[in-house]
Amino acid sequence: MRKQKIHCVVIDQDVEVTASLDAALRHSDVLLELKQVASVQQLIPVLQELQPHLLFCPHEKTKPATDLLETLQRYSPDTLLVWVARDEWQGLTTWLMGVESCILPLNDLEYFSQYIDFLLRYSAIKQDFRDCKHLLGVAELRCHWLVDYSWEAIAYISQGMHLYANNAYVTLFGFESMAEVRSMPVAHLVDTPERKTFEAMSKAADVGSKPSNRLLITLRTLDGERMRAEIRFIPAVLKGKRCTQLHVRPLERNMLKGVSLRKQDNPWEATEQRLQHAPAPRIAPAEVSVASPKAVAPLVPPTVAGMKMVFHKLQRMKENLPSIYLAEPEFQQKAQQLNYAALVKQLGNSGGRSRLDYWNLGQVVLRLSSQGHEKPSYLVFVSVGGAILNNETELKRVVELLNAAPDAAKRIVLAFPYQDCMAHLAQLGKVIKLLKALGVRLAIDGLPDSPQALKFAQVVKPVLVRVDVGLVNESIRSTNTERLQRLIYQLADSRCKVIIPCVQDKQFLRVAYSTAAAYVQGGAMT
């Protein structure tokens, strides 16, 4: 690649700092362009225009760094923030909002120029990496366009599941929607006697770097029709992730018809019989770090007398959204019956709430794991208290449980209460990274209508947000839904899918449909 020009911006609020930086930068042999601004207010248009590689600013302990980090995250997230202090030093740190920063000591004259030179070369490498990603994205987009307009049946697959398919593929197998394609394991489209051969080639393609040989195989449509076809696996990229293209060329159709492959409407019905005969796995200690699935023994919590798991299906506002089930345990013993809300209220933030969360999460993992090779097409929303955020022991137990069942973990949406997140912000970043490594999705529960809460959701970027029940009840009582609608639209604009809880009547359900919400929770159904 051609040599890059490094754009540097200095906030000129300290004469000595500016002079030292100017001298150090001009002595470097890196091609650069230096620009000075007088204040943070003048910085924003410069960020939008230049997208600079490095931003230098005098370090003042009395002023919070959050505002400047948020400005960078909004206008130029790839810019590296360099604080210049007298004696303080801090290595490169990546903040929760994705911006990198460090602190350089100005009085360390011997090494100051070396620090600057390192940062210039590091930012050049980052720029080259961004350019490579951009070119890969262009190539991927062109490839995707060619796939869409191809007459050949082509699907993107990974780890045995469909990611995307073109119209020719959808029509060939008789799918009705893209959601149905993604919910169908690829191996289920292969005739049973030849399935092992197909799975072996599919696994080899997941780790290989060359197109596979052509394979003659018998496939089945969703209506059970068999056909002889020629298939081939080709390495590919989809949305920046490695995957495989499956090319299908039918050779002979209208063979003997078999059993339909269409799925049941209720995903739990097929699981009940397996659960009754599922063996109890042994409990083995594990570290908090995420290990290989083969190295971890499966974990489940003990059974609790009187407790049962109930799954409520959320109502989707759009057909292309994935189905989500809400996991909420209930307690019943003799004449006493407590639903999930009553259990949480009674337990509060005590150790009992932690045990309830662990039992609840364990039952969900058991349900999902018991489906064997039939990977579910839905997600499960599980609420947990704040103990995971401020208690290393509880966090370790939860990670052990999820690490023991990696396939199940990828179908779980773990919801943290907003108030607990704000109370333990320092630990939240670590927990989010751990959950991301495990494949668990993040949700925020009970989000109120406030500028601070909205900014928090925009920075953390959860996949789901359930708005505060009090806000919904107030909107129902006052029949004024303006606040609720504004909050939902702001969250949707930040690419957060919103759940509206406590929708009990059809009148308010119609209001919910007029918003940008993704899901509705409650008894009212159309």
Automatic annotation (TrEMBL):
Gene3D superfamilies per UniProt: EAL domain, PAS domain
Taxonomy, superkingdom: Bacteria
Coiled coil: none
Pfam families, alphabetized: EAL (PF00563)
Residue ranges constituting the EAL domain according to the UniProt record: 289-526
InterPro entries: EAL_dom, EAL_sf, PAS-like_dom_sf
PROSITE patterns for this protein: EAL (PS50883)
Stated name of the protein: EAL domain-containing protein
